[in-house]
From TrEMBL:
GO molecular function, one term: iron ion binding
Residues in Aldehyde oxidase/xanthine dehydrogenase a/b hammerhead domain copies: 34-141
SUPFAM superfamilies the record matches: CO dehydrogenase molybdoprotein N-domain-like, Molybdenum cofactor-binding domain
Protein name per its UniProtKB record: Xanthine dehydrogenase subunit D
Matching SMART domains: Ald_Xan_dh_C
Positions with biased composition (Polar residues): 1-15
Chain residue ranges for the region called Disordered: 1-25, 158-180, 456-479
Length: 816
């Protein structure tokens, strides 16, 4: 209608398309698959220098001397910096504990620790100059595991540690502050008990008890885009940093104090990110690039090669897990005792939060009233470990799911039915005492995944002979079916969504609506890091749904808008999506108010009806069009920037672990079908079926992609992925994709996905975080299937051929 016409009905063709619930295409998708997308490593600046980092060649040593004179004398070298050249007294950084030096001082604590940085006019010049820096080390004994970490004569990784007082146990302080005796040794980074009921007394009621000791290997995030950043000095004395990261504002908070600059003079812009999975949550070269740029007065670019990338970011914590479960004759769980020891490496990173997750989720998605769990992280001289997809819940799931199979066999029940009998549901209590107050369809997920048709037997057989691509060993042609045995395994897991334990988890969105080119357009600006998860797609979908426009522009993420938090913890669609939805709702109210002011006299519905924006128009709930948005917004621009928070959480009690620690839980179940060449120990995963509750699929195609991607990362750590660290020297043995293997398309099985949508009324649109849950249960499902095929008790990841042929038995524990 015009400004005075009679209201008309909105037609189906004029409704807004590309909104919530549709599988809209990614705006960056075509660019990425055609190789045209600009990643951080593609950045370029006129008169740019190249940065290089010199890293320690030993894992634990005193630094006796550093001689940079020969490096500085090289033609084309503009700067060489060490710890003594740092511009302020703030020389450490960290996500939770500021224990990581910008450059090593006095000693190095792990293999590959940054010692000096170089800027030169060519990357090869920078590399050669770094190689000419002479560092004299006096090596020290290494700490590599729990026994060496807490031995009476153990070297202290951080001698001057003061963050956790020692002494007799006392009750926790306000807000969960540290308590005396909570950490019994300085080489224990963090510790979290979870105690509910009386596990010792309940064990006496058990008819069956099973125990297990499990080992989880160190996994790398293995993102394909290496770490890269470009720092450009500014005329105002500040610096502009273009960086591939997961959390712009966390980086800013750590960078600015080291540079001695106010935060508004460190301007950060997200550059193209080639994957993250937790490995970009900590700083890598951000401070180093800025230091060199400010020292030389020139732009400085740093790009890690793959070898350096293995040393330049944290990894998934390796773990030792000790579990005891009991059950009655009718299959009901009686109790759980567990001890989870995570290796945090040389620096804290996100280890305290990982410990909290491992402890609070350590019982799995099961009802068990009597629980005694202890989780802790160690300081060692191994590589630092921190955030990775699944964040502490992955290691625990591997252990408790192996236990469920053992206990089901002891009781004499079907393994899936045993799980379903003990599955939690909405209203169940977590071991932390927190009620599960949204759908928890654990039994239904297991039922669905078990009901999926199994793949046909002996798929490799054909009239033309064996198709070796379908067999263990693949194109290496090691078998034509001889000695190949099929196995089937199941697993289910529970993962929290969002930041936990009282962390102020919020996001900010700025939304602007105006007329451009004769049509209404919306611009959305957040600091969310798009690392491949598809957040930019979802934000546009939300804006279309809430504001009824087709044209939505997503501005590049930077620090000129408020924090969006980290792209981790499966939180961005929930929290930043919630912020975008909230800002759009506020914009909509202002637009409707403008409409009422301009056109309210033309129709009573402006004052009485429930109005919405649809198809570029103002529409009543009955479908009548009251005005076009171009008319309403003529000469107007509406902009809103607002923070949005989910409901608060609280810290876990440091003695009992009780508390409302998590805002939401997500659940996924897997069935793995494998075929194993029992003679050679080769495994072919032929199917990994998954059922997952996602609350609401805002973009169904992206949801399935996230589930399949998480499933493959779980497969990788089940059968191939592990960073190997020499236990005598703490040196990394395999820092390359030649020796650290990740699944390729040839390793990827069929992954059928069954998506449930049971809304969580606490969350925007009822959604549930998706990305991490499938990473949990895929690993134990694959291990269960291999056990089913071989009859071996395989208590470690990854499983290697020598474990299956029993030519190396050190990883296989005796059966109970």
């Amino acid at each position: 209608m015009g400004t005075t016409g009679t209201p008309t009905d909105i037609t189906q063709g004029s409704r807004t398309r590309g909104g919530v619930g549709e599988s809209t295409l990614r705006p960056d998708g075509i660019l990425k698959v055609t190789g045209e997308f600009a990643y951080a490593s593609d950045m370029w600046h006129e008169d740019m220098l190249w940065g290089q980092i010199l890293r320690s060649t030993v894992a634990h040593a005193e630094i006796v001397s550093i001689d940079t004179s020969e490096a500085l004398a090289q033609p084309g070298v503009y700067a060489v910096l060490t710890y003594d050249d740092l511009p302020t007294d703030v020389r450490h950084y960290g996500l939770e504990i500021q224990d990581t030096p910008v450059l090593a001082h006095g000693k190095v604590r792990h293999h590959g620790e940054p010692v000096a940085i170089v800027a030169a006019d060519h990357p090869e010049t920078a590399r050669r100059a770094a190689a000419k820096i002479k560092v004299e080390y006096r090596e020290l004994p290494v700490v590599t595991d729990e026994s060496s970490a807490i031995a009476p004569d153990a070297p202290l990784i951080h001698e001057s540690r003061t963050d956790l007082p020692q002494g007799p146990p006392t009750s926790s302080g306000p807000g969960g502050t540290p308590i005396k005796g909570h950490v019994p040794h300085p080489n224990i980074l963090h510790r979290q008990p979870i105690i509910r009921g009386d596990a010792e007394e309940a064990a006496g009621r058990a008819d069956f008890i099973v125990r297990g000791e499990y080992t989880f290997g160190m996994q790398d995030q293995a993102f394909l885009g290496p770490e890269s950043g470009l720092a450009v000095p500014a005329e105002d004395g500040g610096v502009d940093l273009y960086i591939a990261t997961q959390w712009l504002h966390s980086d800013l908070r750590q960078i600015a104090p080291v540079l001695g600059l106010p935060e508004d003079k460190v301007r950060m812009t997200l550059s193209g990110v080639g994957g993250a999975f937790g490995g970009r949550e900590d700083l890598s070269m951000q401070i180093h690039a800025c230091l060199l740029a400010l020292r030389t007065g020139k732009p400085v670019k740093i790009v890690y090669n793959r070898f350096e990338s293995f040393f330049g970011h944290v990894h998934r914590h390796p773990a030792k897990l000790f579990y005891e479960h009991g059950a009655t004759k009718d299959g009901k769980l009686t109790h759980l005792k567990a001890r989870i020891v995570l290796d945090g490496g040389a620096y804290a990173s996100a280890s305290p939060a990982v410990v909290g997750n491992a402890a609070s989720l350590g019982a799995g998605p099961y009802v068990v009233d009597d629980v005694d769990i202890e989780a802790l992280a160690l300081y060692t001289n191994n590589p630092p470990c921190g955030a990775m997809r699944g964040f502490g819940a992955v290691q625990a799931c591997f252990a408790y799911e192996a236990q469920m199979d053992k206990l089901a066999d002891k009781v004499g029940m079907d393994r899936v039915e045993f799980r379903r009998l003990n599955a939690m549901e909405q209203g169940s209590l977590m071991p932390t005492g927190q009620p599960v107050d949204s759908p928890a369809p654990v039994a239904e997920l297991l039922r669905r995944v078990k009901a999926m048709p199994l793949p046909p037997e002996r798929q490799w057989e054909s009239s033309e002979g064996a198709d070796v691509r379908q067999l263990p060993g693949g194109l290496s042609n090691t078998t034509h079916g001889e000695g190949v045995v099929r196995g089937v395994g199941y697993a289910v897991g529970i993962k929290n969504v969002g930041f936990s334990e009282g962390f102020d988890d919020y996001s900010t969105a700025r939304v602007r609506m105006e007329v451009a080119g004769g049509e209404p357009v919306v611009t959305v600006h957040t600091a969310m890091a798009e690392v491949g998860q598809g957040g930019v797609t979802v934000h546009a979908q939300i804006a279309r749904t809430e504001l009824g426009v087709t044209q939505v522009t997503i501005q590049p993420a930077d620090t000129q808008v408020g924090s969006a938090g980290s792209t981790s913890a499966s939180r961005q669609t929930y929290v930043t999506g919630g912020a975008v939805k909230n800002a759009c709702e506020l914009v909509r109210e202002q637009v409707l108010e403008i409409g009422r002011r301009k056109f309210g006299t033309y129709h009573p519905a402006w004052a009485t009806a429930e109005l919405r924006l649809e198809g570029g128009k103002v529409v009543t709930d009955g479908g009548e069009v009251l005005a076009g948005l171009t008319d309403v917004l003529e000469g107007e621009c509406v902009e809103v920037e607002e923070e949005w928070r989910h409901r608060p959480t609280e810290p876990f009690d440091l003695r009992t672990g009780q508390g409302f620690g998590h805002v939401q839980y997500s659940f996924a179940a897997h069935r793995a079908v494998v075929e194993v060449d029992t003679e050679l120990g080769l495994v072919k995963v032929i199917e990994l079926a998954c059922a997952q509750d996602v609350g609401k699929a805002l973009n169904p195609l992206s949801v399935v992609g996230q589930i399949q991607g998480g499933t493959i990362q779980g497969l990788g750590v089940a059968v191939m992925e592990e960073i190997l660290v020499d236990p005598k020297t703490a040196k990394v043995r395999n820092p390359s994709f030649t020796d650290y293997l990740i699944p390729t398309i040839l390793d990827t099985p069929t992954i059928p996905v069954d998506v449930l949508e049971l809304a969580d009324h606490h969350a925007p649109y009822g959604l549930r975080g998706v990305g991490e849950a499938p990473t949990l249960s895929s690993t134990p499902a694959v291990l269960a299937a291999i056990r089913d095929a071989t009859g071996l008790e395989l208590n470690r990841t990854p499983v290697r051929p020598e474990h299956l042929t029993e030519t190396e038995t050190c990883w296989t524990s005796p059966k109970n």
